[in-house]
Amino acid sequence: MAEIRINATGGVKLYDADDSHYAQIVAGTITSNVDAITLGHDTVTIADNLSLGSDSAVLKFGADGDTTLTHTDGTGLTLNSTNKLCFNDASQFIQGSSNAVLSLGATDEIDLTATAVDLNGTLNVSGVATFQSTPVFPDGSLALADLDIDGGTDIGAAVVDADLFIVDDGAGGTNRKVTASRIKTYVGGNNTPLFYGKMGSNQTVASEAMVKLTGMTTNEIDNDSVWDGSKFLPGVAGWYYLHINIVITWASAGNDGHRAQTNWYFNGSDMAVNHIFLHDSASTALMASGSDAILQYFDADDYMEIYVYTENSGNTADTAVATYTHMEGFRIA
Amino acid sequence: MAQLNNKIRKYLGREVDFRKDVLLQDDGDGVYIKEWNVEEAQPTQEQLDALDAQATTLESNNKVDSTRRTAYGSWNDQLDEIYHDIDAWKARIKAVKDANAKE
What is the pTM of this model? Predict the structure, then answer.
């Protein structure tokens, strides 16, 4: 027969019918001499804390106890098998989907709110990755092969000087932007710098002297400011083609032309590349014309001028004729 | 004013090769002596200025010589002229010289 006993410590023991099992309440602690105490009610309310006092304690859920939370001393709690810890509804969950994979699921979005999210493994993104701020990648980490140029949109217009390209500065160096105008300069596009200038008025030239031709600024073409009427200073290193056309006249009979030649002066020095277009000491010529061209490599600070040397029977001054004297040139490489 | 080349001719008193002996140049500010490659001392500007009148005469006479040569005609034509009538040739040459007198 079941009975209630009050023992010497002031505890209360509740015995079952055969007196083999009991539950004891002593100073707020319920104990028993069986493995489990079952509280047979739909809802049990505990006013404050609930403690599972042993290591490896298991909290079971469900009629068949298929879902458990197991304590591991010094580690924490383990949700058994591939069961999920769901939030709001079954579509938002954390799950140990295998013994090596932890799954986070949500219907629309998993929102990680923190100053920084530190991902130490690889990242496999199946959908579209959208950055709200500028991403920072380690230098040299973006492989050229990963750029999808085919998928880009055509510029739909001619490339202009201001358009930008990417260049590996020094090959293996830092990637830099470069304007189309720089590329054009590098490859010698449009054969610039270029210039043209015709003599504006006749120039009197002393005979038997190297005389620089000047004043070739009529009908001038000089978009790159490389020509001042007598000196070509391209400012851009490269190979250049230069051409001079000149007409020399002598005053009259008694001032007959005997010799006329042009000399290219590179950086102020005679290159000894002379073009002699009249050489006859018995000549009675009153006019001579000559045309000469030269191919020359320029450094950025190199310059070219043209000088004329004449002789006549009177050893007096000659004239370079404006109408027919002009000089021009352009970059070829 | 005479040219610098003719002043130098007068200074040296002989013919000068201005592509080897003495190199003159004009970079836009007037003719100057760029190289002096003869034994004689290079003249000062004062020495050259003093020779201006002589150099002017030289230039003038050079022109006269040149004008005469043009008027004389080619050697071929003159030889033919002499062959046919040497007196007429002499008269024509004298007329050229008289019409183009030197200083």
Answer: 0.60
- Per the DSSP assignment, residues forming a β-bridge with A275 are A262
CATH number of B4-99: 3.30.56.60
Cβ proximity of A242 and A332 under 8 Å: no
Of the candidates A118, A124, A121, A88, the one whose C-alpha atom is nearest the C-alpha of residue A106 is A88
Which ipTM score applies to this complex?
Answer: 0.81
d(CA A97, CA A92): 14
Structure tokens at A263: 């000399």
Which residue, among A90, A173, A89, has the nearest Cα to A139 in the 3D structure? Answer: A173
Do A201 and A83 reside in the same domain of the chain?
no
Residues of A with CB under 8 A from a CB of B: 205-212, 214, 230, 253-256, 284, 307, 309, 311-317
Residues of B in contact with A315 (CB under 8 A): 3, 5-6, 9, 58-59, 62
Round to the nearest angstrom and report the end-to-end CA distance of chain A.
117
- Compute φ and ψ for A219, nearest 5 degrees: 55, 35
Give the C-alpha separation, A330 to A225, whole Å.
Answer: 13
pLDDT digits (tens, 9 = 90+) for A99-113: 999 999 999 999 999
